[in-house]
Amino acid sequence: MADLSWLPRESGLKDHFLCGEEHFSQEAPGVIFEKKPLLDPQGKAVPDLYTAWIVLNNPAQYNSYTTEMIKGVIAGFQRASADPSVVAAIFTGVGDKAFCTGGNTKEYAEYYAGRPTEYGTYMDLFNAMVDGILNCKKPTICRVNGMRVAGGQEIGMACDTTISSDLAVFGQAGPRHGSAPDGGSTDFLPWMLPMELAMWNCISCELWSAYKMRRLGLIAKCVPVIHTEKGFLRNPAVVTESWLEAGEIVYGEFKTGPEAEKAREIVKTAKIDFRLLDAEVNRIVWTYANLFPNCLHKSIDGIRLKKKFFWDQAKVINRHWLAANMNFEAFLGFHAFNTKKITGRDVIDFIEYRRRQAAGAAFDAEFMAAVLARPKTA
User: Fold this and answer.
1) Number of C-alpha atoms within 13 angstroms, CB side, residue 303?
2) Which CATH number does the domain 30-225+274-324 belong to among 1.20.140.150, 3.90.190.20, 3.30.1520.10, 3.90.226.10?
3) CA distance 55 to 135
4) Positive or negative CA dihedral for 333, 335, 339, 344?
5) Average pLDDT over residues 194-213
6) What is the pTM of this model?
7) Residue 378 has pLDDT above 70, yes or no
């Protein structure tokens, strides 16, 4: 064999991280970045190999992301991507109520509403966040620990695989609150659901259960998280038996009437235990760890290309429309949501809006005052 030992060569690894620790914080609101040891099937740590956890830490506002948190997510996925010791990136949130409910509506209403240029710059960061997930050179898993709604649904769908708590709900909020789900849902949903279901999920603002999303193929798996003395209990608020009602499949639909009320009380006082959720995440990561890493990355990118194709087609023009809309319907929608504790309503008067629009009324201060709810009287 030829002797190549004489060739000059550096030792050690280069630092390919774009950022230091400045975008990560244990203080809420913020983003936590943590490397955890890779676990074998017996739960033992494997030396020198890790998973990277990017954790949204804003539980008081259902893990909605602020501008600074978006920077943390971008930094987290870049770090996971560039770290050769990382096998997979896990994207999740703090607590048991929400993975993420989208952009921080307080920040939207009190800063970005009426400032379209500023919001356009914010959307550049948002687009970079989605790009960062889609371009991560490690498999990405969305560990859904609660609600995945609005922009939270969009950044979750950017991940390769979703493993969910069976208490989680999924859906969009844009058309009800002054925006459009153009942060990925209008691009990804038609790939992940039949077209008419993608349409309805995108525009109706209905919340669908994790079991329904699993049945329809939008997520890979959902597992029970309510733990009792008798073991794990499936979400009591959802129909989890396979049967038909009036010709319709009801598996995964929410129960109604007295059953629903009883289920809500059970959930309200339940002990939440994520052992099965984390075991499933670990099982998938272990599968990844036992594959050729370069072949794995190429295979993942081959599937991602289909999602990225439509995302890349529309992300720039969507950014411009979303920015301009901050002077229009988003101004009303985000202010209505942000003042719901004052007014008792989180939406505008849609019928009055349409009536004035049909009459050709100018979109001015009088128009806005007429459709926004007024503060509740003492």
Assistant:
1) 13
2) 3.90.226.10
3) 18
4) negative
5) 94
6) 0.94
7) no
